Amino acid sequence: MYGGDEVSAIVIDLGYHSCKAGYAGEDAPKAVFPSVVGSIDQMELDDCTSNEKKDAKNDSDKHKPNLKLYVGSQSLGFRRDHMEVQSPFKDGVVVDWDIVDSIWDHALRTCLLVDPKEHPMLLAEPSSNSQQHRERTAEIMFEKYNVPALFLAKNAVLTSFASGRATSLVVDSGGGSTTIVPVHDGYVLQKAVGTSPIGGEFLTDCLIKSLEGKGITIKPRYSFKRKEIRPGEFQIVDLDFPNTTESYKLYSQRLIASDIKECVCRAPDTPYDELAYSNIPMTPYELPDGQIIEIGADRFKIPDVLFNPSLVQTIPGMENYAEMASNVRGLPQMVLESINKCDVDIRRELFSSILLSGGTASMQQLKERLEKDLLEESPQAARVKVLASGNATERRFSVWIGGSILASLGSFQQMWFSKSEYDEHGASYVQRKCP
């Protein structure tokens, strides 16, 4: 057991899109950076200078031989030859632990400037995390970082705590997927968890393809520079970098497209219909290279993919996802399905506290539209209430905020899985300590 307030715990929520880290008890994470890394294979670059070879040698103790990793928005914002952008996740599951390790390392040592030996760690994990993944996490934390104590908490449970509830239905729409998770008395009801592969990144890709279909290409920021011809008048000069990888180009385009999505897109009040939205007023958006584009019906069509995945088939360039979309149900159907898999006694309570969380859930009008669709489709007796914090920051970071609240509670301090318990029982004990 820990002496309560003296030692502040560190809370880390590694999501598909970004990693949030900070101190327990604070109201927002100190560090937020992308959960992808840039990697350069030093073997391929024979013209490496001897200094870089030395760096590569020092790094190779930590990572795979000759792979140099760049973590954080600043390192990723700088274009380098042959740099691939890699994500540690595939289908929502961690597949590359070296990348995860470098992200944790960056969060603790570079962003928070703390020594992990002195702070207990509370890590958020997906609701469907497997036993091997939990044990691997405990192993890295205790063996490599020597943390004094660890706790793994489920994303949905933390979101529920952040809104002050023990029972709720959490609709978590993040970068990689959308997950519907019923939480009862602080525990996840695993049998009723539903997921869909449509998340923020998928919508961003739909937007890129849709704009390309209209002849608009998004120029990544590194591919041009502005040259002043007369005071206040600029000319765009294209730059050519033949060694830029495809993955880095896509990463840079997604950054811009996701900003367009956040600025102009909103969920339509009624299901999207080509005719009804054909003569809607256009919204201008200025791209980094100064070109101003007009976005019309796409503002409503792209977000509606969450409610009606088959719309993907009408977006040029997304045809290969058509089969996937036909197997995925829309948000309201997933919510009803999840509630119906739960015990009859708690269904009423779940209907009245549906919580929205995650970056994609911060989209305008999403809450109102989901509530409206659910009212139409749910049983008469149910009182449907969709809740979402009015503050977009709270919606985006609800998992982290829940972790921050939990780890600073006095009554939680005897729940930690301590280093001595790990030494005594091994990594598998994490299953008993962190339900």
TrEMBL record:
It comes from the Eukaryota. SMART domains: ACTIN (SM00268). Keywords: Chromatin regulator, Cytoplasm, Developmental protein, Nucleus. It comes from Erythroxylum novogranatense. GO terms for biological process: chromatin organization. This is Actin-related protein 4. Belongs to the actin family. ARP4 subfamily. Involved in several developmental processes including organization of plant organs, flowering time, anther development, flower senescence and fertility, probably by regulating the chromatin structure. InterPro entries: Actin, ATPase_NBD. GO terms for cellular component: cytoplasm; nucleus.
